[in-house]
Amino acid sequence: MKRKILYILGAVLTISLIVGTVYYYLLTRKNSVSNNNIDATNVIINNTKLINASIAQVFDDNARYPSIEIDPVNNPIIYYYNEQNISSIFERKLTNDSVKQTLAEYEGLDNISWSYDHSKAIINVVYDKQNFKDNDNILSFDGAQDGFIYYWIYDIKNKKLSKLAENISSPIWSPYENKIIYLEQDTESRQLKIIDLTNNSVKTVLNITGDDLIKYDFLTKNKIYYQPQPFGIEGEDVLENSLYIINLDSMEKTQTDIAMIGQIVPAHKNGLFAIKSEINHQKIIVIYNENAQKITEFILDSSIYNTTWSPDANYFYTANIQSTGNDIFYQINIKTGEIKKLDYSTQEQINESLNLIALPDNHSLLFTVGPLLYKLIF
């Protein structure tokens, strides 16, 4: 009888050891891509390191569409739009209360997109014919159609406005040069084009048939990606959500093996990009290099509302929403796979954080909630 009990205990211990070994392997399994010198771990975010953080409103002004420029003494300058009293674009150092108004009495703004050197900005305007003419708006012009969106280039240094091409949508700045990529559409065709603002030359990158949506952005100085949704690129039958890369020097087009539903977030450094998506109720971030080779992935436990890269592309940040309570912020180390949950407490309601900006110190974030600008330090 004793021998039988010992056999049973031995079998239970053996099974426990096997199960524990398998669990440990799955928990610590690593993916590596040798040509990127990255050895990162697939991580579930519940196992992250908790880091104390503090949060505070940056200043009292409304600060819509903020963007950051670092000057030579590493003193961040924030550019933003304030619609209170006189609607204006301002620039302001984060370390003091010095405020400089750059474009005054501006009405009808729908969005601002800043060039990466902060010398220019794309201003989106929804044209309100009656209001614009009655108030002698500086962005009013003959031939403008009521309710249409028009895009203007604002030269911050010279304080000059010039209208971008008409019949366009979704203009995006190149992080590397004074160029903009945009979609142009007329009654017969749609084309993806790039304009070089140094000489106003325009290059057609892609002809598009049909009315399908298309996502696009710069990956490197000489590469862009685009993602048709779902059909209609130059008459070809393409897989839904297939990702393509175009070399702007050779104009060679490559279809990648990536076919994911999700938002693409380019780092604009080293050719890295992330795709955030939800598959089988799992919130996933996958990191790729410029050749669309997978580097690593991270599985999260709450819905990702906003994301950004650090300026050096070593970290990826997410702002995650919860059904109750304030947003959660995470910092992901792309090289090591370490994830930090930025733990803060505040009396403010921090929900649906937008305009997430990582500062170069890798220990602070800016973001907006409604019109207010906040800083998270960790």
Average the pLDDT over all residues and give the rounded result.
78
Quaternary structure classification: single chain
Question: How many helices does DSSP assign?
Answer: 2
Which outline best applies? globular
Structural class estimated from helices and strands = mainly beta
Q: Note the gap between the termini.
A: 62 Å
Count of β-strands: 32
List the helices and strands and how they pair.
Blueprint (H helix, E strand, L loop, with lengths): L1 H27 L1 E4 L4 E4 L1 E2 L4 E4 L1 E4 L6 E7 L5 E7 L5 E6 L5 E5 L5 E6 L5 E7 L2 H6 L14 E7 L4 E4 L4 E6 L5 E7 L4 E7 L4 E8 L4 E8 L2 E7 L12 E6 L5 E7 L3 E4 L6 E7 L2 E7 L5 E7 L2 E7 L5 E7 L6 E6 L5 E5 L10 E5 L5 E6 L2 E6 L1
Parallel strand pairs: 3-25, 4-29
Antiparallel strand pairs: 1-2, 5-32, 6-7, 7-8, 8-9, 10-11, 11-12, 12-13, 14-15, 15-16, 16-17, 18-19, 19-20, 20-21, 22-23, 23-24, 24-25, 26-27, 27-28, 28-29, 30-31, 31-32
InterPro entries: 6-blade_b-propeller_TolB-like (IPR011042)
Keywords: Membrane, Transmembrane, Transmembrane helix
Organism: Candidatus Berkelbacteria bacterium CG_4_9_14_3_um_filter_39_23
Salient structural properties:
378 residues; Methylamine Dehydrogenase, Chain H; mainly beta; five-stranded mixed sheet; globular
Could you characterize what this model shows?
By secondary structure, the chain is mainly beta. The chain has one domain: YVTN repeat-like/Quinoprotein amine dehydrogenase (Methylamine Dehydrogenase, Chain H), CATH 2.130.10.10. 9% of the residues lie in helices and 50% in strands. The longest helix has 27 residues, at 2-28.
